## 1
Amino acid sequence: MRVGMFVTCLVDLFRPNIGLAAVKLLEEAGCQVDVPEVQTCCGQPAYNNGDLNNARAIARQVIDAFAGYQYVVAPSGSCTGMLKRHYPSLFENDPQWRAKAHGLADRSHELVSFLTDILHVSAVVARYEGVITYHDSCSALRELRIREQPRTLLRTVGDLTLNEMAETEVCCGFGGTFCVKYPEISQRMLGDKATNIKASGADTLLGGDLGCLLNISGYLKRENSPVKVYHIAEILADMVHGPAIGDGKDKQ
C-alpha cells in the first residue's frame, strides 16, 4: 500500500519527530511511505482569513503533489479536515479542479484514524510510564469524527494510564487565527483547559494536533506546570526522545 504523507507546516518547522513517528507507525503497519518534497502548507491560514484566491492556489499545489497516491495521511486533524472538508468547496464552481479536490478528499485520512479504521490496527508495541490525559482537537472531533480511535491504541501502550480530563472535547482556544483575533477569549479558554488538565492528575498531555499542543504547552510552561506534552504519534511509535513539546528545540 503506497501512502503519501502530508507532513504539515508545524510538524516540519517545530516538531519533526512527529513526522518520523508517523512514518514508523505507517511502515510497521505495512505501508510504503513517500513524503513528496514539493508539498506546501494546506492553505488553512489563508482560507480562515477569507483569502480564497491564495487558498485555491495552495490547494492546487497540494492536489498535484499527492496525485497518484492510494492514500494521503497527515498527523493532524486540522490539516486533514482542510483537505477532506474544505478543498472541495474551494472549487465548487470549477468542474475540473472540483473533481480533483474530491479525489484527494476521498483519499485523505488523519494518521490515527487511518491506522485504526483503514488498516485495522488494534494495538501497538510501545511503553510509556506515566498518567496521561487526552485533548480532542476541534477539527479531529467535529470535522472527522475522531474520538475513540486514539484511545483504542493508547490503551495498548504498556505502563500507560489514561485519566480523562473534564470537558476534553472543548476547544483549547487556539483555533488557528482565532487566538490572534480574540486573544482575551482565547486565553480564558486556554486557562480553563489547563485547569482541567491539572485536575485530571495526569503528568502528560497528549493530542493529535500540534497547533493545539503548542498552544497548551506554552501556557503550561508559563504557569510552571510539570505536565509534559507530546503528540500521540510519538507515544504510539515509542519515540519519546529528548525534550517534550515546548521544552526546547528538537534534536534529530
Note: The longest helix spans residues 183-199.
## 2
Amino acid sequence: MFVTVSLAGTLFFDVGVGAARPKVLLYLLLTMAPFALVAPVLGPFLDRTRGGRRLMVAAAMGGRAILCLLMANQVDSPLLYPLAFGALVLSKGQSVAKSALVPAVVDSHDELVLANSRLAIVAVLGATAAAPIAALVLKLAGAPWVLRTGSLVFLFGTVCAFGIPRAKRVGSGETVDERDALHARSIVIAGTAMGLLRSVVGFFTFFAAFALKRSHEPAWVFGLVLFASAAGNGLGTLISPLLRKKVREEWMLAGALLVPAFPLVFAARDYGRVSLVAAAATVAAATACGRVAFDSLLQRDGAETVRGRAFARFETRFQLVWVAGGVGAVLFPGGGRGGIFVVAVVLLFAGLSYVGAFRRAAPRNARPSLPPPG
C-alpha cells in the first residue's frame, strides 16, 4: 500500500489526464514483465526446495525494503521504472509462494477456503490501516518518505517470514500424472473464469480512476471509491468461509461472476458518484470471493509437488488479462455509464458460460491419481 500510494502520487495525481495516460500505460506494460521470471524460473525453484517457498517470501520482503530506499531517491527520474519493475517481480514471487504454502498449514482440504479467507482478511486489514498513514506521509513529506516508511514494513516482514513452516514434499520435474492434474477440466475452466474476472477488475480500476480525473473530482471522492473497494474486499473475504459450508468452490466462483452483474446494470443507468462507489464495492467483493474460491480449488485439485509452478502459471495469465483490461480502460473512448455497462455484460457472460462448463464437466472432474512420493 505504501508503494502504491507513492507511485500513484508520482504517475497519476501530479499530472493532467493527457500526461497521466502514457505514464499509466507504461506502468501497465511493466507489470507484465515480472512474469517472464516468475513462471519459468521462480515456480520450479519453489517446488524443488523444501524451504524455497519460505525463502522466497523472506527474499521478496528484504529485496523490496532495499528497492524502496533506492526508489525514494529516484521518484523524479526514469530510473524509477526499472526499480519499480524489480519490486513487482518480488511482489509476484511472494504472492505465488504464499498461495503454494497454504496447504502446508491446514489439516484438510475442507479448511482451504477458511485459510485463504483469513490471509485475505489480514491483507485487507493491513491495507486499510496503511492507506491513511501513507496518504498522510505523502501529504506532509512527499512520495520519497512514503517509500522509506514502506521499507521499514518490509524489513519487519522479512523477520516474520522465517517463522513460516517448510513444505512437506519436494518436487522434481513434472510427471505425466502431475501435468494431467494441473490440466484437469475443473482447474482449466475455473482458471478461465477467474481470468475474465481479473480482466474486469483491471478495466474497472483504471476506468474509475480516469473517469473521476476527467470530471475533476476532489481527492475525497477518490478516497471514497478506494474505501468502498476495501470494504467490498473485506466483505467478500468474510463471507467466503460461510459460503463454502453451503456450496462447493465452483458455485462460489460462479456467484462471484453472476451476482455483481445485476447491480452494475442499475449503476450504469443512474451514473454518478454513488454509482461508481457502489460498483467499486460490488466488484471488489465479488473478486475477493472468487479469488478465495479459485485458490482453494487449485490447492484442492492440483498436485502438491508442482503447486508453486501451478500458481506461477495462473498468476501470469491473470496478470496479463488484468493488464489487458487496464489498457482497455485507459484507451476507452470517453467515460460515463458505458464502462460500467461493459463490466456488467462481461460478468454476466462469463458467469453463465462457467456454470454451463463446470456442470457439463462434473462427471470428469475427478483428480487423476498420483503415485506416492518417492
Note: Confidence is low (pLDDT under 50) at residues 363-374.
